[in-house]
Design a protein that fits this description.
77 residues; alpha+beta
Amino acid sequence: PYRGEHLRLAREAAARGELVMAGALDEPVGALLVFRAPDRSVAEAFANSDPYVTAGLVTRWSVRPWTVVIGQDPAEG
């Protein structure tokens, strides 16, 4: 019952250019969401409002900085 709202929030974050990509992990089950933002507060705000988190389906999450070395980073230009 939470998937629709979760996807709505993800699509909105993607439309704003914050969420770059997201997907599910298998064995162990999990997910990875990649944000492009000036600081961690954008990803933390997403997680704190995600219905999977607020409903208790996701019981643990973390935000970790990631430095793009090769990929579609505007700094590569």
